[in-house]
Design brief:
Number of domains: 3
Number of helices: 15
Strand order of the largest sheet: 5-4-6-7-11-12-3-13
Bound molecules: flavin-adenine dinucleotide
Largest sheet: 8 strands, mixed
Strand content: 15-25%
Shape: globular
Radius of gyration: 20 Å
Helix content: 25-40%
Length: 383
């Protein structure tokens, strides 16, 4: 029987295989780190090979475009939008173009328990919930199927997500003429953390602060937008606590320790300027050096235009955006994920062994301890 992947590093969990399967023989199940992987039901599988044919790992070229991308600095004209966005509000400007044409937006949202999952929005209110980066791999559910159904009904669709999810969508859609009305916008993506560790972290915050989480924001702009502040803006409230700003321990595990990201991120083929999407958005890190007049403490975006369709969509955003073309070297210098994948620490397995043996409280480290100590602790070297 066919197998969709051989090593865990070879599966991004995009779920395209699940939805392309004509026999509905593939389910997505979490592994012991909480990441979803395809699981084939042998009784249903007819070995047709569609799953591996369209998989972004095995597909030659990974669906990346060959066009030469163009780089823009951009900032939303509305202060309110900037305040409510991670970077310079590029996502809101781009999605507004689609909403104005009665289109549909897909992006990452929370459910009532703050699980991260892809959702569908037809209104600005529902779209607004997709704002702000959620540093957890989102569950795609049946997003690809819903997108196809919307396109078949003649709706214009904007999909936003990580590059691997964008590649999964391209694999699922193939060369369908429906693609003409599908716009894909991906993020420059550092790597993607485990939903299981996020679950543990939420429970820890509830235990430490009492009550149930009622709001969460990974990247608030309370102290302004800057690279230095990007790991200090984690805000949350419970129904028994006021707003709390954490010197985010989850963020430390993600960015500094790097032990909680999906294994496939270390081999990510999408960490270059040839993208799978029509547009790519991210923080314009370093803009204060290259062109200080563009710096805004409320956030600045880089928008990479990857295709003629992307260029057309970007043109239509101009009533909402201030923007200017910039040399690609600026983003190449500042964005490591346009050059290489994230490194998985050598002792990653030690982190997970410690987690299984001693629990989450042990690996996350003690509150208010120095991060170096947290790091040592989570790898089991501090005691
Ligand atoms: C896991 C992750 C890693 C990132 N790594 C980098 C990086 O290395 N460098 C960099 O400059 N920028 C990175 N970003 C992108 C950046 O944080 C902003 O999301 C981006 O600049 C958009 O900001 P905005 O102001 O235009 O939009 P916002 O209004 O903040 O919109 C957020 C957008 O991100 C999408 N999104 C949020 N969470 C997820 C998720 N978990 N999975 C898929 N899509 C999601 C939403 O669907 C929406 O389209 C990352 C984002 C994520 C989620």
């Amino acid at each position: 029987m066919i197998s969709v992947f051989s090593n865990r590093e070879d599966c991004y969990g995009c779920s395209a295989c699940q939805h392309i399967c004509p026999q509905s023989a593939i389910g997505m199940n979490p592994d012991e780190e909480g990441f979803l992987y395809p699981n084939i039901n042998e009784d249903l599988c007819v070995d047709c090979g569609r799953c591996t044919e369209i998989c972004p790992v095995t597909h030659k070229g990974n669906y990346k475009k060959n066009d030469m991308p163009r780089f823009y600095v951009a900032r939303h004209k509305s202060q309110e939008v900037l305040w409510q966005s991670t970077s310079g509000g590029a996502f809101t400007a781009i999605s507004d173009v689609i909403l104005r044409q009665n289109g549909v937006i897909y992006g990452a949202d929370y459910d009532e328990d703050f699980h991260v999952l892809h959702q569908r929005a037809e209104t600005p209110e529902k779209r607004d919930r997709m704002r702000i980066s959620k540093y957890v791999q989102s569950d795609m559910g049946d997003t690809y199927i819903q997108i196809k159904a919307d396109l078949q009904e003649g709706r214009m669709v904007l999909f936003t997500g990580t590059p691997c999810q964008a590649a999964g969508l391209r694999g699922f859609m193939g060369t369908s003429p429906l693609m003409d009305h599908l716009f894909i916008c991906d993020l420059i993506c550092h790597s993607i953390p485990s939903p299981l560790i996020w679950e543990e972290y939420k429970q820890l915050l509830e235990r430490e602060n009492g009550g149930k989480l009622v709001s969460v924001q990974f990247r608030s702009k309370k102290d302004g937008w800057s690279r230095a502040n990007s790991n200090k803006g984690f805000l949350f409230t419970t129904d028994k606590s006021p707003e709390i700003q954490e010197d985010d321990r989850f963020y430390q595990l993600f960015f500094k320790v790097g032990a909680i990201t999906r294994p496939s991120c270390s081999q990510c083929p999408f960490t270059d300027i040839h993208r799978v999407s029509d547009l790519t958005i991210a923080d314009y890190w370093g803009i204060e050096k290259y062109s200080p007049e563009w710096f805004d403490p409320l956030g600045v975006s880089v928008i990479i235009v990857n295709s003629p369709k992307g260029a057309d969509l970007f043109d239509q955003c101009q009533q909402e955006l201030h923007s200017e073309e910039r040399p690609k070297e600026e983003s190449l210098n500042e964005q490591k994920r346009l050059r290489e994948p994230s490194q998985i620490p050598e002792n990653r397995s030690l982190f997970w062994e410690n987690y299984r043996r001693s629990g989450f409280g042990y690996v996350i480290g003690k509150k208010n301890k120095k991060h170096e100590e947290d790091e040592a602790l989570c790898f089991g070297r501090a005691d």
